[in-house]
Every structure is written in C-alpha cells, then in structure tokens.
Amino acid sequence: MAQSSRADRRHAKTPTSLPTGTVTFLFSDIEGSTKRWEAHHDAMKAAVARHDDIVRTAIVAHGGYVFKTGGDAFCAAFPTAPNAVGAAIDVQHGLAAEDFSAVDGLRVRVGLHTGYAEERDDDYFGPAVNRAMRLMSIGHGEQILMSAATYALVQHEAPRDAFFADLGTHRLKDLAQPEHVWQLTRHGLRRDFPPLRSLDTLPNNLPVQVTSFRGRERDLEGLKENLAAHRLVTLIGAGGVGKTRLATQLAAEVLDQFSDGVWVADLAPITEPDLVPVVVAKALGISGAQLRIVDESVTEALRHKQMLLVLDNCEHLLESAAGLADAIHRHCAKMCIVATSRQPLGVGGEKVVRLSSLAVPDKATGLNMSAALGFGAVALFVDRASLVDESFRLADDNMPIVCDICRRLDGIPLAIELAAARVKVMSIPNLAARLNERFALLTGGSRTALPRQRTLAALFDWSYDLLEPAERMLFARAGAFAGSFTLDAATAICGAGTAGPFDVLDLIASLADKSLVNAETGSGFERYRMLECTRQYALEKLGVSGERERTLRSHAEYYRTLARDAEKSFGSSPLGEWLRQAELDQENFRAAIDWALSKGGDPVLAGDIAASLEMFWWHGGAEAEGARWIDGALRAIDQDADPDIASRLRKALGLIMSRMMFS
What we know:
Elements: H1 6-12, E1 22-30, H2 33-39, H3 41-61, E2 65-70, E3 73-78, H4 81-96, E4 108-116, E5 118-120, E6 123-125, H5 127-137, E7 144-147, H6 148-154, E8 163-170, E9 179-185, H7 217-229, E10 232-236, H8 243-253, E11 262-266, H9 276-284, H10 294-302, E12 307-312, H11 318-331, E13 335-341, E14 351-354, H12 369-372, H13 376-388, H14 399-408, H15 413-421, H16 428-433, H17 438-441, H18 456-465, H19 469-478, H20 487-494, H21 501-513, E15 518-520, E16 527-529, H22 532-545, H23 548-569, H24 575-583, H25 586-597, H26 603-612, H27 614-619, H28 623-636, H29 643-662
Parallel strand pairs: 4-7, 10-13, 10-14, 11-12, 12-13
Antiparallel strand pairs: 1-3, 1-4, 2-3, 5-6, 7-9, 8-9, 15-16
Helix pairs in contact: 2-3, 3-4, 7-8, 10-11, 13-15, 19-21, 19-22, 20-23, 23-25, 23-26, 25-26, 26-28, 26-29, 28-29
C-alpha cells in the first residue's frame, strides 16, 4: 500500500502527532474492489470517493491517525482501543447507509489489533502492524474482527448493544502463533458471515513459524508481482539468505487466490532424484494407488487444479526437480510453481528472481536508532537477540556495533540469527571482536533445523560439496580477491590448470548460477565479487588445499602490475576517469599490500605497489592511508639490499606528507 502524502493528511485535519507506544491499529479495505473497478469503472470513482470520506471522517472523529492509504485501503492508529472500536462501528454504519448499487455494493472488512509498534517517519513498523493487517485479510466484507488483545481492552467499554462473537483460534498469514479472533457487531449491522479465510480453513500444508517475518517486506511484494505475471518462478540466492522463509510467506499471502490450496514439497531431506515426484505426490495428497508412473501420475492429478506448489530446496536434485516442474508447467494451465534453489532450474518460461542479502547500513555514523531499524539486517538481529535475551535493547551505545556486525555478516539472515543467538552469553562488543573467527563462533543453531543450517560452516559445506572439482578449485582461489575482480584477473590468478579465459568464464558463470559469486554487469563492463562470508570460507578451503600462499602471492603480483600500469597512465586521461578505474581495484590493492607485509610475505612487493599508487593516494583522498602503507613498507624492507625501492618509497612518503602539511 502506497503511503499517502502529507498534504492529504493536512487536508483531512488528522491529529498532528502519531500515537506512540502501545496503540490500537485499524486496517480496512474493500472486498472484491478489483472486479468492481473492471465492471463499473466510472461508477467506482464516485463510490470510492464517498467510501474514503466516510472512513476518514469516522477515524478522525474518534481521535485516530491515518498513517497510510493505498488504493481503497486505510491504515490508522488510535491511542485507545475503545476509540478504534467506535471508529470501526461508525465506518460500517456509515457505509451501510449509502446506496452503492451502481457498483453492485461496497463491502468493507475491518481488522483491529492492539500492541506495541515502532514509529518512524510518520509510519509504523513491527509485528503489531503486520498482525492487524493479517487479521483484516481473513475477514469478509462488512465484518469487524479484533484480536484477543483488543477484545480484552474493550469488552466492558463497548456500546451496550454491541455483540462479541468468539470465532475461536486461527492461524494468520504471518505463519506465527495463532490468534484468538473475536467478531464485533452492533444493532443494524450484519452478523452472519462465511468461515474466516485463515490458514485453518483453506487447504494448505504451510508450516507454523516460531519467529516473525522481518526485513523482507519489499521482496515479498515484488515476488507477489512476479507470481501474478508468471506461473513458474524460481527464487535463487546464496545459502542462508532466506529463500525458504520468503517462499512460504508468499504462499501464505496468496493462499486465498488458489481454490485448491498451496502446498510445500521440501526436497532437502532426500538425495535420490527418483524420489522427487514421490515427495511432491505425498505433499499434494496424491494416493499411492495412483503412482503407476509417479511423475506422469502427478501431472495427471494436477491437470485441472488451481493450486500453488512450492518446490523447496531444489539445488542438489536440479535435473529431476526441473523435469517435474517443466511437465507441470506445460500440462497444468492453472498450476503455479515457486521453486527455491541456489541456481535456476533452467526450463522454458521460468522467471528467475535472485534474492539478495538483507539491507545493511554502509556505516552507522549519523544514524539514529529508528533509521538503523529501517535496515532489514538490523531489524532481524534486534528481533532475534530479544528472543534469547529479554534485556537486550538497541541503544545509542550498541547500535553502531550491531550495524557493524550485520555489515560484516553481509546481511545473510542465517548468519545474523546465529550471531544474535550468542547475545545470551556474549556482550555485543565481544561478539563483534570475535567475528574474524566466524566459522567457529557462529554455531548452535536450532536443533530441529537441517544440519546444514545449524552452523555457518555447515551452510557453506553444503554448497561446496555440490561443486564439481574444477569449480571447487576456482572457488577456493577466488577467495584471494578482497573486492570485485575482472575475468582477466581471475584467469591470471585462478586459471592454472584450465585451458584459457573462456574455461574460467564458464566456471565463474557456474559459480554465479550457484549463488557463490555475484556478477556485476550494470556499468557496461563485467566484474565479479564474493560476499565476505563466502570469501572467508573460500580462503579456508584454499588453506586446506595447500595453495594459499602461492595464490596470494600470485594475487599480489598481479595487482603490482596493475598499480604500475596505473602509475604509467596517470595524466593520459581525465583525472576523474583515472581515479574511478583505480578505485575499482582499491580493495585488492589493500589486500595485496597487507599480505606482502605479513609474516612470510614480500615487503619489496608491498613497497612497489604502495609507491606506484602515490597519485591515487593523493588525488583519491586517501593520503593518510597511503602514507601508512608506504611507511610500513619502508620499515619492513632491507633498505641497503633494495636501494631503488627504498628511494621510491622515501620520495613518495615525503611528497605525500608535504602535501598533507601544505593542504
């Protein structure tokens, strides 16, 4: 739902400040509005305008604040639950008194829930907001639903002729704990409705989730749009990025769009390709008597079904999963499929959606706590840390460290959840300090999770074990790159044992398909990059192979050549263009110098790179960093044994220091 403008709010004369802390939310929308717009477009303009006036007037009259609108939906907050109930009753009475026959009636559903929410930029965030929306979504037009929390606050303060109906406990579309739902009616309002559209009444096998859905709201909306346009959508991404959680949440959100339900077939526990159709058949409830030829029987059973099938964890059984998905997609016109995998299925008509890590702040400087919680990774860390330690709070003193933890973990949800679990036994500063040992530190995941999801190392082991030998070799060697790199760099440093650059390109493409390397192609040229967690794992594998020092030396020598080339080309192109090109390799220059200055490295090589980049340090605004690298190299080399490089370093250091003092 799109947020309404501030001008609209002023025109509506809503309160000047939002209720804060524990508030009661009212969510409403028009049932079946899309069909009415299609059938009565002109009449709907007038009808919705009148609807908007009635709803907004009722909300404002009871002290509510409309904080968001979208289409025909209203989201409002009230300082007290009785105020929200009064507004809901007035909305339904006001609409019932109107003649909407020109649009075949206008029926609005309302959901009320009370809870604590975070307020930010005239909007609300958090589980309480989501709960109110989910509660509304299971209702019917003209119905008012409320949560147990709201009912407890209003049962003795409602109008005398108000009637509360206990509708029992229902699972909402957030997949978390069930909600005890109450229906509110009053004299003159409708009382009888069909069963609620909850997960308990619609056909599905969706699992209950014990934690809240955080940080993926935008991804969820985008995935809904893709599913509306394509019947086969494959959600790909690195291990631990949250593909399964997002796919199951999507299934819950669209459940009422599929008359035959939504069904999840988890392929993770099996290893035999022939078992894929058997697992799918079992998930769909296709009886064993039908399994003459299992895959054909599945397709035949689904031919006339309007259903969503989630094929979860396909990467290790890709060919079999792809074959079955393709057959269903081709022969079952009403079926939709969402697959999750670390690489695409590779079948016709497949829409591939890559799921990135959660958003992380580039830096915590200047961020307040409210802004920090706007980043999905931070919101997830805070939510999970609060579960294991009730005393944990995001505060001014720990917020920059939490942001740093999330950034160093690349926003990978599983890594963040494992880190947050350590809050019960480690302080936030100590947790951050030990992240360099992340594969030993980030263990102790849920005992009921798949083995590969219990530790960060096991997560990467799963992906690594699925690679071919040549892919493993290139993957481990690519850990040498600290930042983005080119195909030429990969060929020079990682290509030993391959026939040429096209072989390396094929291997990189395969690693990108498997979500172990990210391809950046949006600037007219291609570069490749690993997430830092992935890179650290690759470096560990490189050490196990016995190739670590050789590969890191090759990396440093390659970037020495690039640094020398940059020194020679200075002045041959506009300064801005020259700097942009050098900046692309800045992280690798740093890594090369750092290795060369380490024990067993090559200080002369470090000095050569640092001196060659003199103009880059200066014009790129990194004078202090350049001076530090140059001074470090000068101290590390034997100046009598290498007088030429020593002279270059002294000259470069003197020029940089004098410019710094002059400026």
